[in-house]
Amino acid sequence: MFKRSVAFQECDDFEVAERVVPFAHEYKFADLLFWYPGQGKAAYRIDDRVPVNMSGDGVNDFVGFRAIPTPAIQARRLTEDGFEMAKNAVGQCLAAKGMTLADAASNYGMMNADLPVPVLLALPIPGKPVVRYQQHRIQSSGRCLAGPDHALPTACPWDPCVVHGTQFFQSGIRVPLSRATDFIRDVHSKTGI
Questions:
Q1: C-alpha–C-alpha distance, residues 140 and 135, integer Å
Q2: Peptide bond into 153 cis (omega under 30)
Q3: pLDDT single digits (tens) 67-120
Q4: Is-contact 9 46, C-beta < 8 A?
Q5: Is 59 exposed, middle or buried, given 0-12, 13-18 or 19+ CB atoms closer than 10 A?
Q6: Alpha carbon distance 182, 187 (integer Å)
Q7: 133 in Cβ contact with 52 (< 8 Å)
Q8: CA 149, CA 143: separation in Å to the nearest integer?
Q9: Of the candidates 153, 177, 171, 172, which has an alpha carbon nearest to the alpha carbon of residue 163?
Q10: Which residues have CB under 8 Å from 46's CB, separation 6+?
Q11: pLDDT above 90 covers what percent of the chain?
């Protein structure tokens, strides 16, 4: 039996190629959470086992997996479509940058629920570890896992019942760890970074 401690470290991506393999070996559940070559940023998920007597009651409550007002979902989609139709790359990049800043400010959804306030009011503290014994509460994410389906006027962002709802394009890939350094260097060379 063990608890997990999760923290995030965001940094410039100039050393990702050299750091990714040692990082993967350093922590039990290590993860390169994101790498945005265009923004020159990367975030590492520092996720490791800790003793069961370590205090903490963390929960993964990522804002992207919470029911939100449907007009907010639709407004975001209309904004994205507007940038796309206008071929406004600057607007698209600024919107993407805004999302990454919001994710980082919310500690990517990880928060300590053992504070003397309800989980809804528990504020994330970026960079501070979140500890949890029950693995499903720290690995799974968001209130949409247990929330009502089609609870309009709120909905989960991916709910197909929302007209003009969110579109998701996940461009994540998997690369064998033995080839990660070469892959990252190759991407850097092709993007001129």
A1: 8
A2: yes
A3: 888 898 899 899 999 999 999 999 998 988 888 888 888 888 888 776 544 344
A4: yes
A5: buried
A6: 9
A7: yes
A8: 11
A9: 153
A10: 5, 6, 7, 8, 9, 27, 30, 129
A11: 21
